[in-house]
Specification:
about 260 residues; mainly beta; Porin; 12-stranded antiparallel barrel; two-stranded antiparallel sheet; about 10% helix
Amino acid sequence: MLNKKLLNTLVLAALAVPTLAMAEDAPASPHTVTGNVGMVSNYVFRGITQTSHNPAVQGGFDYAHASGLYAGVWGSNVSWIADSGAVASGSVGMELDTYAGFKNTFAEDFSYDIGFVRYNYLGKYTPAAPWVKADTDEVYGSIGYKWISAKYSYGLGKFLTIPDAQGTNYIELNANYPVSDTGITLGAHVGKQTYKGSSAAYLATTASGSPTYTDYKVSISKDFSGYVLGLAYSKTNASNFYNWPTFGGNWGKGVAILSLTHAM
């Protein structure tokens, strides 16, 4: 009889162990680190090709805190700096962006995001006059409602290879609509890149034309178990400032872009 009671006690204790272990599990970490890698048939940024209409390999890492703080790094091969004649000597072939910010939600279905991004262009090179090195700093802010958002980016000091460009800015409206239970997302975008400063004003009086332009894009993507296949069409009204016949022709012309990305 004693042995039977002891056996029952041991069985009950064994059954209680999983419950006790679950109760003692540490809470979920507020820190999240993710990565991504992808390929595109043409790296287009704000409507302008960064690779003279050639493919690019891209990827990065992101850190996010439950409070809304985030930071990350993202890179891609580029060719536009050398192809535009802005390099006197040396070489530069990679963009490496670093960024940090804070985003969260408020009310019902509203969101916001504020932050800073540094566009770094890696390579040892000397810029050709009158251009400057392309490294650029921007601050940005956006507000969203459900799947629609508006964003404003403001350049600090020079902008890309154009000197004296304080106040250069980009305003955009984006829509990304997820089709329920399909893994498909439909996208639409319109943005305007406005260059400010004496250099931009001078360029507007030349045959090249103003660097200011408007861009448009529509897209569709499908998630295949973490692999996202996308197709987009991008077009701008950019002036001859972005026309380089030796390197892909009009860098702001209408183009179809195929992409494949994977989040890790």
